[in-house]
Amino acid sequence: MLEFPRWKYALILVVLVLAALYALPNAYQKNPSVQITPSTSEARIDEALKTRVEGLLTAAGVTPVGTEIDENHLLVRLSNSDAQTLASDTLRPELGENYSVALNLASTVPDWLDNLGARPMSLGLDLQGGVHFVMQVDQAAALQKRVEGYADGIRTVLRDARIGYSSVERRPDNSIGVVLVEGADVNAARTQIIDSLTSAAGQAVGGSGPQVLADGNRITVRLSSGEIGRIATDAVEQNRTVISNRINSIGVSEPVLQRQGEDRLVIQLPGLQDTAEAKRLIGATATLEFRAVTGDENQAAAAVASGNIPADSRIYYNDAGTPLLLSRRILVQGDQLINANPQTDSQTGSPSVGITLNSAGGKRMLDHTLQNVGQRLGIVYVERIPTVRIVDGEEVRSARSVERVISSSTIQGVFGREFQTTGLSRDEANDLAQQLRAGALAAPMDFVEERVVGPSLGAENVERGITAVLYAFVFTLIFFMFYYRMFGIVTCLALILNLLIVVAVMSLFGATMSLPGFAGLALSIGLSVDANVLINERIREELRAGMPPKAAIVTGYEKASDTIFDSNLTGMIAGIALYAFGTGPLQGFAVTLVIGIVASMFTAIVVSRALVTLIYAPRKKLKSLAI
């Protein structure tokens, strides 16, 4: 008896509707666009900026397709890549350092599809292109930061050993000068310094430790060349790890992050939607510094007015522009943070960030709060902002640091590794927690190159590749229709649905399609064709054995299903292994292959049988099959 459960028909219908719905966004081409995002807290995205941008573009002869204001950026849609480049070149020097102007590809998917979570399938850098960054690590700043850390450690051990000193300072040549007070034990100080540096730096590179030279009551510390080289190398590797974490937090599929030369990193983000946000998050070096407050607002104002600032203090300003005196000594900084989460203060209900320090940072904070309950602790937010200036028609990139006091509250009690930072807005708390969770950069980084790249194999090669796949698909369909007649038509419909399901699933889950992905798709279609061939040939065998047509259909599907399942299972195991142990293009191939195999099993065993049943079940006196 040729029967097929009605619930399976309902399932096929649901799958067909959902597949068509979630594959539909791929029919909408993206607009080349320019995305403008604030780079500083003073910058605003509003109607005034929109009017100004439209005026600048009109004066440059650029006609936008549309201009949209989002909650945090201004998007200018353009007709082609030439207009996009001209618009970017026009806006960057005019908007200056307060705004980030990034090239982008803006989606044209209707809002009703977007609200359903239906988005276009991500394409790899070899098909769609994407954003290409080259960033340079400031190794000199990393070395300076490490040497200042060593100097701070020397101050601590000398105080703990009760050895008097008048100054411990980093010199321009990255040596450390120590001046002891009269009568201090120089040999004891030298021993303490050597132990401190050995503990801080670990085993010396190549067996060459730092040189600690004594001359009277002066001690000079010079790092070995091996140690200096290790610091520079470690800075690049640590930044590479941090950037990798930040890319993962953006959610980019199959990113490329490679080291180039001694101090550069190459970042490629294929199919990325929000390039300005990526640039802000990747390039940001925002962190916190905890410093003791050494004077109240009146003393700070008097110091600014007279220009007589205490040697152990610096002037900082809060959001209201009020000056504050903070210690030059940093208690805890960003690289000692383990975790940060946006929270709500249980007492005031205001936004805050819950911070967890490592053991070293927690100990320093505990030691400070034990001795300074009732004193004030300043929290400085430091952000390094990339800037671009046009000099003689060429871009000159640099960076400026913005430092502001976000809190200068009184220490109410003793705390160590875990505490809360208040004085932030909700957006500031979320942004700061996200950046701090991603990790602290060992050294500042600057964008030295930024561009949107096209297909690496060229548009012509991509077009030919797609054409070849389409022709192969059409030729396969024509062969099936002539060779298997009615069952060939059923097979063709199943293959079309199989292709639709693969595109829909990859679009729904944000998988990236690349050239290796096309290879995986072609292979999965081949496996689907193979499954249908097994079914059709099995039905032919049953007919040749004298079995009635309807019984031959039932038997053919039942006996072929086990073989199809076994053969596809081996393909899935291979795909899972490629995904687990491969990287980049191999993973793209594996994802497409596994999705295609699952879809091909469903369409070959379930969908084709449903169609055959729908065609032949109503016929009471069926004597032959068109196969």
From TrEMBL:
Keywords assigned by UniProt?
Cell membrane, Membrane, Protein transport, Translocation, Transmembrane, Transmembrane helix, Transport
User: Looking at the keywords, is Cell membrane present?
Assistant: yes
What protein does this entry describe? Protein translocase subunit SecD
Q: Where do the Protein translocase subunit SecDF P1 domain residues begin and end?
A: 236-294
Coiled-coil intervals, chain numbering: none
| Role this protein plays | Part of the Sec protein translocase complex. Interacts with the SecYEG preprotein conducting channel. SecDF uses the proton motive force (PMF) to complete protein translocation after the ATP-dependent function of SecA.
Instruction: Provide the Protein export membrane protein SecD/SecF C-terminal domain boundaries.
Output: 447-615
Family under the similarity heading: Belongs to the SecD/SecF family. SecD subfamily.
Q: Where is the signal peptide?
A: none
Self-association and partners: Forms a complex with SecF. Part of the essential Sec protein translocation apparatus which comprises SecA, SecYEG and auxiliary proteins SecDF-YajC and YidC.
Note the topology in the membrane.
Multi-pass membrane protein
Q: Which Pfam families match?
A: Sec_GG, SecD-TM1, SecD_1st, SecD_SecF_C, SecDF_P1_head
Under InterPro entries, the record lists:
SecD (IPR005791), SecD-TM (IPR027398), SecD/SecF_arch_bac (IPR022813), SecD/SecF_CS (IPR022646), SecD_1st (IPR048631), SecD_SecF_C (IPR048634), SecD_SecF_C_bact (IPR055344), SecDF_P1_head (IPR054384)
The organism's place on the tree of life at top rank: Bacteria
Occurrences of domain SecD export protein N-terminal TM (ranges): 3-103
Q: SecDF P1 head subdomain domain location, by residue?
A: 315-443
Q: Which organism is it from?
A: Luteimonas terrae
Q: Specify whether Repeat is a keyword of the entry.
A: no
Per the UniProt record, which residue ranges are transmembrane? 465-484, 489-509, 515-535, 564-582, 588-617
